[in-house]
């Protein structure tokens, strides 16, 4: 079974993502990138989405990382996912030079949402 790492944000569920994952029969690893001391809404959304995906029949794991998307690179090297789903806002916060560096280090395709 192929694996996708899905980095979540506090916004609602993006349209079409679940259908894409179902079509590809992917195992989902939900990750919350924590930054603030009070990430209550992000934690709540993380477990709410995990429960929804589990009810939909997906194999789901949950995790957290502190920092930027660069924090995920070592995890991605270990897991070898087939896809990274990343909120566009988190990617744009890196800035143009860091965006290129991040993209060059990615071991899999990136889908911004």
List keywords for this structure.
113 residues, alpha/beta, 5-stranded parallel β-sheet, 41% helix, globular
Give the secondary structure arrangement, pairings included.
Elements: E1 3-8, H1 17-24, E2 27-34, H2 40-55, E3 60-66, H3 73-79, E4 83-86, H4 88-92, H5 96-105, E5 110-112
Parallel strand pairs: 1-2, 1-4, 2-3, 4-5
What is the oligomeric state here? single chain
Q: Main sheet: which strands, in order across? A: 3-2-1-4-5
Rg to the nearest angstrom?
13 Å
Question: Could you say which overall geometry the principal axes of the C-alpha atoms support?
Answer: globular
Question: If you had to describe this structure to a student in words, what would you say it looks like?
Answer:
The protein is an alpha/beta fold. It is built from five helices and five strands, in the order βαβαβαβααβ. The chain has a five-stranded parallel β-sheet with strand order 3-2-1-4-5. The radius of gyration is 13 Å and the shape is globular. The two termini are 23 Å apart.
In a nutshell, what does this entry contain?
This protein is α/β, with parallel strands linked by helices and 113 residues long. 41% of the residues lie in helices and 25% in strands.
